[in-house]
Amino acid sequence: MTKNELITKQQLEIESLKSENEFLRKSHDNIFNIIYCIGGPLNDNKLGYTKEQMMDFVKIKNELFF
Fold it and tell me: Whose CA is closest to 35, among 17, 12, 62?
């Protein structure tokens, strides 16, 4: 593999990773917004989740924001 081929391959990989990173960041934000709205700022829990179910969502949120 020549130096130019290696550089081209690396640049293609970088661009692919940038695209994947952007997708994951958007997904991350969407997931956070969904979880945040479950209890809402008023903690209304209008969907009627149990305490156990709410704790599962807290665990997911904690994994998203290390």
Answer: 62
Name which of 36, 24, 43 is nearest 61 in CA terms. Answer: 36
Residue 3 is classified by DSSP as H
| Full-model pTM | 0.68
Which of the residues in the chain have pLDDT under 70?
39-43, 66
How far apart, in whole angstroms, are the C-alpha atoms of residue 38 and residue 58? Answer: 11
Question: Using only C-alpha atoms, what is the Rg of the chain?
Answer: 20
Task: Give the separation between CA 49 and CA 66, rounded to whole angstroms.
Answer: 24
